Amino acid sequence: MLYLCIRPELHMAYLSKKTPSSSYFRDKYDRYAPVVWLFAVYLLCEIIVYPLGEFPLNDDWAYTKALNTFTTRHEINIGTWPAMTLLSQILWGSVFTEIFGFSFFALRFSTLVSSFIGLVFLYKTLHQLTGERKLSFLGSTALLFNPLYFNLSNTFMTDVNFNTLMLIGIYSCFDYFRFQKNSALIWISVVSILLVLLRQYGILLPFCFFV
User: Fold this and answer.
1) 3-state DSSP assignment of residue 190
2) Which spans in 50-80 are helix H?
3) What is the pTM (predicted TM-score) of this model?
4) d(Cα 164, Cα 177) in Å, to the nearest integer?
């Protein structure tokens, strides 16, 4: 080792032999570490909040009622209270009630999952735009700690699911315009349909894409 220090050119040659494997793991770490840290921060926040409990929050009692009608009677009836199309919300929530059984927490958990997916896609979009992982991570945590976003993430309201679908759609649009991926067009189409079936003004995504 002392000889390598005296002969720096040999030291560089020694390091170059180690580069392929170490650079591979370094690249993997750089790629996934921000998402892992984002999840850790998110999990810590939820542990502090402790979102358990069998009770509705805000207006999600109406959406819960529509979902319960769908899962028990196998019919779509959003009632007179909701003003949106709501179908995507019902379908998303029904996946979790099918797995965990019907409960208010299961529905809140569905929103928490959707919320984190939205944060990941925001991170991916910001990273595509800036190329900076730290800046993209900070941008994602800024959304996480937005009081409205964090509060609504712990409900079965439609706001977070709509935001997540919109972020996926924006990322897909950017992916298509930059790389001309046909798969991105499929994602844009699917997300646009889900957005419209969640809230009527989800039509803004395909409108902006074609404009």
Assistant:
1) helix
2) 60-73
3) 0.86
4) 20
